Amino acid sequence: MKFFVATDHAGIELKDYTVEMLREKGHEVEDLGPYSKDRVDYPDYAHKLCLDVLANEGTQGILICGSGIGMSMAANRHEGIRAALCHDAYTATVARGHNDANVLCYGERIVGKGVMESILDAWIDGSFDGGRHCGRVEKIEITKA
C-alpha cells in the first residue's frame, strides 16, 4: 500500500516514527514534510496531502498535528476525502470499515508511539465493509448545485 504522510511543527516526532513504521511494514511512503520544528500552517500540508491522495487512486493519507483536529477539519474540505480522527485501534477499525476513510488523522500530543502503532495496524488491516454502509458513505459527499 502507498501512503502519503504529512504533519505540522507539532507532530514532527510522531510523523518521523510513523514513516519509519510504515516502511518497516513494507509500505511505500511519501513524506510530505515538514522536516523541522519551525512553525508552519497545518492547512497547507493537509491540502497538499489530500490532493496527492485524490490524484493517486488506491493510496491512503496520514495527517498528524498536535491534536489531529485541525488536520482532519482541513482534509475534510476536499470532496472525495474522508478523513478520520482516531485515538485508538477501535476508532481506526470503524473509520475504515463503516466510513471508507482514506485519510487517518491523529495528534502527537494525544497518542503516544505505542497507541499510534495499534492505530496504524488497525488501519492497515481494515477495509470497507460495504453493504449497509455504502449508502451512508455516498451521503457524506455533498456536491454543490
Structure description:
By secondary structure, the chain is an alpha/beta fold. It has one domain: Sugar-phosphate isomerase, RpiB/LacA/LacB (Ribose 5-phosphate Isomerase B, Chain: A, 3-Layer(aba) Sandwich). The chain is globular, with a radius of gyration of 14 Å. It is built from six helices and five strands, in the order βαβαβαβαβαα. Strands 2-1-3-5-4 form a five-stranded parallel sheet, sandwiched between helices. The model has no long low-confidence stretch (mean pLDDT 94).
- Provide a count of the helices: 6
Largest sheet: 5 strands, parallel
Query: In which order are the strands of the major sheet placed?
Result: 2-1-3-5-4
Backbone structural class: alpha/beta
Report the count of strand segments: 5
End-to-end separation: 35 Å
Fraction of residues in helix: 40-55%
Mean pLDDT value: 94
The dominant shape is globular
Structural domain count:
1
User: Which CATH architecture would you pick?
Assistant: 3-Layer(aba) Sandwich
| Elements, N to C (H/E) | EHEHEHEHEHH
CATH C-level: Alpha Beta
Spans of at least 5 consecutive residues whose pLDDT stays below 50 are none
Strand content: 15-25%
- Please compute the radius of gyration using only Cα atoms: 14 Å
In the CATH hierarchy, the third-tier topology is known as Ribose 5-phosphate Isomerase B, Chain: A
CATH superfamily: Sugar-phosphate isomerase, RpiB/LacA/LacB
Observed structural traits:
145 residues; five-stranded parallel β-sheet; 6 helices; globular
Please summarize what this structure is.
Helices cover 46% and strands 17% of the residues. The chain has 145 residues and is α/β, with parallel strands linked by helices. It has a 5-stranded parallel β-sheet with strand order 2-1-3-5-4, with helices on both faces.
